[in-house]
Amino acid sequence: MAKVDKEDLKKIKTKGTGFISEFKDFILKGNVMDMAIGVIIGTAFADIVNALTADFINPIIGLLGGADVAGEIVIKTLTDGTKITIKYGHFITQVINFVIMAFVLFIILKVFNSIVEAGKNKLAKEKEEIAPAKTDEVVLLEEIRDLLKKNK
Questions:
Q1: Cα 138–140–143 angle (5° rounding)?
Q2: Is the residue at 69 inside a domain?
Q3: Beta bridge mates, 77
Q4: Domain span including residue 97
């Protein structure tokens, strides 16, 4: 069996704590926390959209079109009484949910991108407006240059 000395143990211990501290830094970064909050809010928003679709949109579609959005088609009834069905109403509901979620995300990203673009434009204008002040040496050198041009 190979003998392990104290230096090897220190290296192993340091390597492990480096990994743990690296992982801790990763977890505590703002991006990971923002992403976690976004997932939680997204889940809550999905529940709201599901309720909107099931409780408002589907009844309106049923009222206007006379169709049962929560419907299903029985394909076959087995001998033991089990029914094989296609639940088209659930599929339609999920498509409506997807369209609503995609539209809301599109609007949010559009607003976010316009805010970011406005911030970039503002920074660019501020950079253009702020001209660096000339030092005394630069002013003196410009005067000498102008005098030399005048004397030619």
A1: 110
A2: yes
A3: 83
A4: 11-131
